Each structure stands twice: as structure tokens, then as C-alpha cells.
Amino acid sequence: MRADRLHNKNNNLFVLTETDLDKVFNQVKEIQPEVLVIDSIQTLGSSLIDSAPGSISQVKDCTGELMRFAKETNTPTFIIGHINKDGNIAGPKVLEHMVDTVLQFEGDRHLSYRILRTIKNRFGSTSELGIYEMRNDGLREVNNPSEVLISQREEELSGVAIGATLEGNRPLLIETQALASPSTYGTPQRATTGFDNKRLQMLIAVLEKRGGYRLSMRDVFLNIAGGVKVQDPALDLAVAASMVSSFEEIAIPPHICFAAEIGLGGEIRAVTHVESRIAEAEKMGFSTIYVSKFGLKGIDFKKYGIQIRAFGKLEDIFQDLFQ
Description:
By secondary structure, the protein is α/β, with parallel strands linked by helices. Strand 1, helix 3 and strand 2 form a beta-alpha-beta unit.
């Protein structure tokens, strides 16, 4: 019914409505497809196991049979599994242990973009990221994710800073949005979207202790634009700059971006692959990037058309940025 609704007219795509694994293999041997997709493993059952589909024994046995088929025939096989409310694969954990790669396709129902993450990969990196746009005619690959993750604004706003992060080997420019408003309750609120809440509280403590910004009496809200979850410490400086920008009500020029980690002493720490971050910022049209002065050894500044501002202390950056 779903294939009919999608008007499937591709002669190279075969759809089989079947939950018996033995009958599936009979059709596979007859057609010999280049790629096999099972949707979903919880609805599949084998006659060799005396239990209902979706049970631990059925899922384990069916997955083992599909793995054996894929290895023996060299056929790429995708097994789709249900997920629970927490976003984890439903059912026994043995399913994740048996397969070679676990891919997670996530997205926000209110956004048109979808993110493909690698949770497990026996033969490669697990930190790679793919971004796609959901359209009426299907998914479209986003070749330049930085354009998606940086929102277009008609005017300069306070509390907005651009950070250069890294997903696997791919540099991305991400917009961080912060709002620091006077607290109306006894305990200030700390809320984040796409960023670790404990790391946000650490950065607030550093700004208050080392920078003198009285954020302890402010509600602080932080949002990573585009619905992306970021764990790269190189986004620390962009997050701190966006909070100070909102606190001081001073907009950061849109042609400036940041790439550095912040230590507890207020020092600006170096991050990995700083050259690729600088190159990505230059490609996206930024004129200035703030980085740590401790991570620029061996870098030729002349080959870049972007101004590289290197500092070692947090207060020095803010004096230079908000002077």
C-alpha cells in the first residue's frame, strides 16, 4: 500500500509484503538483488523458532540468518529496527552487537532537515555526520551543511555567535544563540538545546569568576541552530561570546566566527584540526576568526585570506571584540 501511494514505477525496486523469513530468502535467491532492506526486523519471524515475531529469540535468530546471508553472498543488507521513546533501538541489545554498523536517522518534526549519525562502525569512524533535506519528492543531500546551520538574519542581533565545529573529518559552522535575561525567580534557570547543560554551567561560572560578568542573577537560555547536537569543545568560545553579547546587549558582527576551548582558569585552549576550521570559515565568507594562540604552530597565515585573531586569555578576546 505504501509503495502504491508513492507511485513506485522503478523496475529496479522490488517490494515484498512478507513476514516469514524463509519466504523472504526464497524471493531473494530468485531475484538476487544488489541491496536488501528489511523493514522491520521486529515483524519478521522464522519457522525454526517457536515464538512470536519481535521476541528476543526471533530477533536474534533472524538477524543471524540475515548476517550469514550478507557475508556469504556479499550483499549489502539494511535491517531497520523500531526505536523507543528515548531514541534507542527497541528490543534486545544483542541486535546492535551482531551487526557491523548502526546508523541513526534523526530529525525534528518541525524542521525539514534530517541528520544521519553513525552510532557504531566496525570498519570506520563513528563521528561522521550526514545532513539531508526532506522534500515532497524525497530526501536531498545537503552538500554544504554550514549554509543550513547558519540562519539568515535581516539585522544584527545580540546573543548570536558563529562557532567552527568538527563532525568526524567535516568542519561545520554552527550558529549559537544565547539569551541572558534578569531572573524573576529565586534560582536562575539554565536551559539548553543541542548543547551539554553541565558544560554551559561551567562556562557561566568561568565568565563570572574570570570575566566579572554577573550571570548568577540571570536566566540563561542557549540554542544550537538547526537542531544539531554538538559535543565539540571548540564551540566553547562561541557559546561564551554569545552569552556575553546578550548580557551586554552588543551584537557580534556577522563576519566573525570562533574556534577554541575554554579552560577553568579562563585560558583559551587549542583545538584539533584548526586549519580545516579556518579554511571552512574562509570558504563561507567570514573575514575574522578567533582562535587560541597555542595551536598555531607551523601554520602559514599568508595562505589564508581570513584574519586570524589569536589570544591566550578570555578577557583579552572580549576586550578586543567588544571594545
